[in-house]
Amino acid sequence: MEPDAINQLAHFVPSIIAFTSVLAVILIANALIRRGQAGEISVPRQMLMLCLTAAGLLIVIFSLPLSETSRGQVLSLLGIVITAVIALSSTTFVANVMAGLMLRAVNSFRPGDFIRSEIFFGRVTERGVFHTEIQTEDRDLMTLPNMYLVNNPVTVVHNSGTIISANLSLGYDIPYARVEELLKKAAEESGLAEAFVLVVDLNDYSVSYRVGGFSSEISHMLTIKSGLRKKILNTLHESGIEIVSPNFMNQRALEPGEKIIPARYGPARVLEDEAKPEDMIFDKADSAAEKEALKRELTDANERLKALSEEIKSLEKGDRSALENERNQLSARIEEITQIISHPPPE
């Protein structure tokens, strides 16, 4: 190799070293950030990676063997490119980032919560910077852009419970007082509290009713909704009431006054230990909810540990035993929760 070529290559040695060092730092930082992050990666950590990448790019540019004028031109060109990219993608990229920050600031829902937005319904599994992931009733994972959730109303099922209801229409020939009695009975037998029946509408040929009640078991909403409808069918049919439109026509030859009610199959059996479909449908959402609950417990435990330490310092040595035992148990629990969050079990 010619001496001039070797001299020219030697000028790029600092740049190669800088590039290698920056790449190694970014890869190590990325590995450390993603370690133990089974769910969502927090916004501060994502912003840290973005800042590290930007700083590394500047370090590589300043290490290049360029004159001050050329380096300034390169930085100006880089600034123009970044500005153009941000301007062109501002309607999606920046908008979704700002929407994600807004959703986290409002904190109206967390991983594990049931949400409904327009036609979409499911449990939140992850909140990212650009999107929110939900697990639908078909066990599929759906990604909703954060801007969509900001621009459309979002209904969040309250953790303390929700109203489970069903709508049906019956003929005018059935007294509403009798209908109310039977529908309340069906709601109570399905496990709903404070059952109610509303007359929703007076249609041309039928009366629309809504029956519902309060349920605190929000994790099994689908099963409870199905159970309510089953109880409505059984209760009305056993009482001789048809659930069919008054203008119903059947091409079969029927005897006058014959009712369209299925033959009794047998008493409905409810198994206490029967597997609920939600356990399979919302498996990822359940894991996200458990992890979110552990995070809240960890925060509360750390605050309690700090308060205990201050209280122990203010007591005499002989009066500290009970509080010290509590502090030791709390420290062990904090370590256990930290291990679970950092090293979640494989799915």
Briefly say what this structure is.
The chain contains 11 helices and 8 strands. It is an alpha+beta fold and 347 residues long. The strands form 2 sheets. The protein has a 5-stranded antiparallel sheet with strand order 4-3-2-1-5. Strands 6-8-7 form a 3-stranded antiparallel sheet, covered by helices on one side.
Task: Give structural notes.
- With 347 residues, the protein is α+β, with helices and mostly antiparallel strands.
- It has eleven helices and eight strands.
- The chain has a five-stranded antiparallel β-sheet with strand order 4-3-2-1-5. Strands 6-8-7 form a three-stranded antiparallel β-sheet, with helices on one face.
- Helix 2 runs antiparallel to helix 3 (43-63) and helix 4 packs across helix 5.
- The protein is elongated and about 105 Å long.
- The model has no long low-confidence stretch (mean pLDDT 79).
Helix content: 40-55%
User: What shape does the CA trace take?
Assistant: elongated
Q: In CATH terms, what is the fold-level topology of the largest domain?
A: Alpha-Beta Plaits
Q: Can you tell me the residue ranges where pLDDT is under 50 for at least 5 consecutive residues?
A: none
How many helical stretches? Answer: 11
